Amino acid sequence: MIRQYKCQIIGMVENMVHPMPATLDRFHDLLDVPLLIQIPFDVELARCCNTGMIESYRAEVINRLTTNTQRILNSTK
Q: Of the residues 7, 16, 17, 45, which has the fewest C-beta atoms closer than 10 A?
């Protein structure tokens, strides 16, 4: 279904990650796209989303997402 849009998929973000069976942990491999980041469930992130203040959320995981995305985009030029 994802491929029907015929656009380049640069990677996948797994949101609200929690421990799961290894068979489900490699979904990005099935799509043949790199995993950009796994964002763990974070009470502070949920609070920011629920209050409409997502822009105030600060975490190292967001910096890693930015770095990983930029690396992938630079490699596809």
A: 7
User: Which neighbouring-strand residues pair with 35?
Assistant: 12
Find the domain containing 70 and state its range. Answer: 2-75
pTM for this prediction: 0.60
Evaluated on CA atoms 52, 19, 60, 65, the torsion sign reads: negative
- Model confidence over 1-57: pLDDT tens digits? 666 777 778 888 887 776 655 545 566 666 777 888 888 888 888 899 899 998 888
Number of structural domains found in the chain:
1
**Quick one: residue 42, left, alpha or beta (phi over 0 = left, psi -120 to 50 = alpha)?**
beta
Residue pair 28/51 in contact by the 8 Å Cβ criterion: no
The residue type at 42: D
Burial code (b: 16+ CB inside 10 Å, e: under 16) for 14-23 equals eeeeeeeeee
